[in-house]
Amino acid sequence: MKNLQDIKILYSEEVLQSKIQEIANKINEKHKGEEICAICVLKGSTPFCMDLIKRINLPLTLEFIRVSTYDGDSSTGKVNHLDMTLPPLDNKNVLIVEDIVDTGFTADFLLKSIKLKNNTKSLELVSLLNKKIARKIDVNIDYYGFEIDDKFVVGYGLDYNGYYRNLPYIGYF
Ligand code: IMP
Ligand code: MG
Q1: What CATH number corresponds to the domain at position 86?
Q2: Measuring from atom 10 of ligand 1, which residue has the nearest CA?
Q3: Which residue, 48, 124, 128, 158, has fewest beta-carbon neighbours within 10 Å?
Q4: How many domains does the chain have?
Q5: What confidence tens digit (pLDDT) does each residue in 108-160 have?
Q6: Domain range holding 151?
């Protein structure tokens, strides 16, 4: 466990919440008159997904899946599908909600596996953070909050060995 006092704040709670409102506005506008099926990618996306869906003013259903790739502070590059149980998503506007797209392996895997099994009306990806410089596989992000440098960040769902997910802000050591 590192010392919480040593965390430098990158995005404060206020900054995060106002960015999330901006993202929700875009989704509300784009999908006016439609329904959304949001898929929260456990565990990291939980705080972002919960704050985002509260601001989406469209009929919405919520699903959860669980995958993992990280070990400590580096990506293993291998996506473990811990639970990919989903209902049929045919004809639905599916929105995958991610905390961060880093190498892109997780998002690429999720997009491909949902596409393979379902004939969705639309399939979009929203990610709070975009670590574009670390990308190893090309992936299209429909909406994102902030583009960040190649540094390891924690807080607001993002963890280091399971800790710091409960911070209301995003920071780094
Ligand atoms: P990717 O498959 O490399 O794009 O990584 C996706 C997952 O790795 C994210 O959903 C996070 O759970 C984790 N991850 C990537 N970068 C960070 C970071 O800076 N802090 C904490 N977790 C991260
Ligand atoms: Mg994650």
Answers
A1: 3.40.50.2020
A2: 100
A3: 124
A4: 1
A5: 999 999 999 999 999 999 999 999 999 999 999 999 999 999 999 999 999 99
A6: 4-172
